Amino acid sequence: MSIFNIFKKNELNSPVLHKQKRSLQLEKLNALLNQKLPKETKEKIEQEIYQVKSGDIGEKQVLTVLKNSHMPMYILHDLYLKEGGLHSQIDFLVIARKLIFVIECKNYSNHVYVNAKGRFSILKKDNSQMLIDDPVEQNRRHMELVALLKPDMKKRLRSVVVFTNPYMKVHDEKAPAEISRQLMTADRLLEFFRKQQADSRLSELSDEEMKQCADFFKEKHTKNPVDYTEKYFQTEKPAEEKKAVPVKPVLPRTAVQKPVVVNHAPPKQKLPGMRCPKCRKSLQKSSDGMFYCPGECGMKLGQVFDHKLTETELRNLLGGKTIQCSTQAGMTLVLPDKIQKEWKGKTVYEWKTKLLSKK
Ligand SMILES: [Zn+2]
Question: CA–CA separation, 339 vs 134, rounded Å?
């Protein structure tokens, strides 16, 4: 360091990037495609893979713009924040000299229309308009969470929604100014930053304050626990167990919530059509509701960890379907495959499992 730099307070003059680790989104989705699933479910998953990939392309475009800005800023990419009951996946949090920009990227392929009330819609092929999720409102919730975590920075927060698909156009001529100001394409982003900062009467943050703020949010970042299995698998469980599911699916759940059926079946009831996957003997049910194989094959088919399988769950497994259930270990995926284990000197067989999220 030269002696002159001692008197120079702020030296940061280019962007610093902090990229969070992606939560293996694509890997998880691709793994699901290899499972036995209904055709429609596979199509939905393929569509989501496509969306994740094209979303990534859009975000990379924004990232390139930010990285080449020659502006002092901390760029936090792909931030997942959680506080209280709230959680937000933030595409970019940019900490600049005066302001903090919360950026939501959208890669819509259709033209977007914003009406005088600020409602967002797209034009369908038959020329009818379809309302879509409001990205400004979505980003407002992101900002709320950021402000909740760091109240001292609340006044510096600015919302930006960037449309990354170059083939679409946003028709926001009629939109309220407050909303249209936040909407832009990636090539306008830096101009917007510069103008907003120049117009702002807030004090400048020092290098140290900017770094502290970036470190704070880096620390707050947690892995996004999006549970794709939750989204795509039909699990039929009593209503009581459903409460334990930690993450709300983004898409509407397809499973039907069935009432709890009290089973008055006599003990050791024979179960038509349910045969042991190991030795093909007809299964039985004990008085405490546990399914078991009466043979000596060693197949422990009635439970997964501490979870007693319901008849529906077991029938799904026997029919080659994957199910998921809540166990002592956490949300667990149960595959219709057997694994061999040694237990107290005997060879036993259990359902193959994958832990989706720890408790
Ligand atoms: Zn058996």
Answer: 47
Q: Is residue 1 part of a domain?
A: no
Distance 292 CA to ligand 1 centre (A): 8
User: Ligand 1: distance of its center to the CA of 23 in Å?
Assistant: 39
Instruction: Give the side-chain half-sphere CA count within 13 A for 359.
Output: 9
Q: Which residues pair with 331 in a beta bridge?
A: 326, 357
Tens of pLDDT along 191-204? Answer: 999 999 999 999 99
- 340 C-beta neighbours (distance < 10 Å), count: 9
Q: What's the gap in Å between 329 CA and the centre of ligand 1?
A: 26
CA distances to 20, 66, 75, 207 from 211, in Å:
16, 17, 11, 6
pLDDT-derived band at 244, boundaries 50, 70, 90: very low
- Residues 207 and 235 placed together within one structural domain of the fold: no
Strand-strand pairing, 183-185 and 157-163: parallel
| Residue 181: DSSP 8-state | T
181 with 62, same domain?
A: yes
Task: Please tell me the distance between residue 271's alpha carbon and the centre of ligand 1 in angstroms.
Answer: 14
pLDDT of residue 133: 85
Quick one: 15 and 127 in the same domain? yes
Q: How far is the CA of 346 from the centre of ligand 1 (A)?
A: 14
- CATH number for the domain spanning 69: value is 3.40.91
Choose the final residue of a domain: 220, 239, 260: 220
Establish if 310 belongs to a structural domain: yes
How many angstroms separate the alpha carbon of residue 275 from the centre of ligand 1? 8
Q: How far is Cα 43 from Cα 32, in angstroms, rounded to an integer? A: 11
Q: Which of 258, 265, 264, 263 is nearest to 238 (CA)?
A: 258
Statement to judge: residues 234 and 214 lie in one domain: no
**Domain range holding 178?**
9-220
Residues 181 and 270 in one domain: no
Cβ-count burial 104-139 (b if 16+ within 10 Å, e if not): bbbbbebebbbeeebebbbeeeeeeeeeeebbbeeb
**Residues, CB-to-ion distance under 5 Å, ligand 1:** 276, 278-279, 293, 295, 297, 299
302 Cα–ligand 1 center, Å? 11
